[in-house]
Design brief:
The protein has a five-stranded mixed barrel. The radius of gyration is 21 Å and the shape is elongated. The protein has two domains: 32 residues; 144 residues, OB fold (Dihydrolipoamide Acetyltransferase, E2P) (Beta Barrel). By secondary structure, it is α+β, with helices and mostly antiparallel strands.
Length: 179
């Protein structure tokens, strides 16, 4: 009887190990691989609607935060933090959205890297332009947003490039840094 229990215990451990390997492999393949997505619409400077794996979903650009385009708690906090009036927040939010509209074509497919989901259920990741650069990096270079990396999203892809692009925009007083 004891030998049967030992076999079952071993089997459980192997089963759990196989399940964990399969889960990690699936997660890695699903979230880390570069794929393509078709742009459906531009929501604002850091969020777009995409068709990805035959489903429509919002994708929030990782590593950046554009100013808001309408009144919200976040828009008010952006105005307070940057010591600007709320209409300036909306101006730069609209400017970032127009920049994205100029750089992404509706119904065109782009390379994307999906890293996970945010607390609102949106995909969180990167969209790569035809020159292979992330869209967020271009927004930062022009001063249309600020960098934002949360620790809970472990991936720090492009973090150094993003920091340097933001520092450049600040030095040159571009976009939101022009005050």
């Amino acid at each position: 009887m004891n030998s049967i229990l030992q076999v079952i215990k071993k089997f459980k451990i192997y089963l759990i190990a196989v399940f964990l390997v399969a889960y990690v492999t699936y997660s890695f393949c699903y979230y880390q691989n570069d794929r393509t997505a078709k742009i459906i619409s531009i929501i604002d400077g850091d969020t777009v609607r995409i068709r990805y794996q035959n489903k429509q979903k919002s994708l929030r650009l990782k590593g950046i935060d554009c100013f808001e385009t309408s009144i919200s708690k976040h828009a008010k906090s952006q105005a307070k933090y940057h010591k600007i009036k709320i209409n300036k927040v909306f101006y730069w939010g609209d400017t970032a959205k127009k920049f994205v509209q100029k750089n992404l074509k509706i119904n065109k497919s782009y390379k994307v890297r999906i890293l996970g989901k945010d607390k609102y259920g949106r995909f969180l990741g990167y969209i790569y332009l035809e020159n292979h650069e992330p869209l967020g990096l271009n927004l930062l270079r022009h001063g249309y947003c600020e960098q934002m990396f949360f620790n809970k999203y472990k991936s720090k892809i492009h973090k150094t490039e993003y920091r340097e692009a933001e520092q450049h925009a600040k030095r040159e007083k571009l976009g939101i840094w022009s005050k």
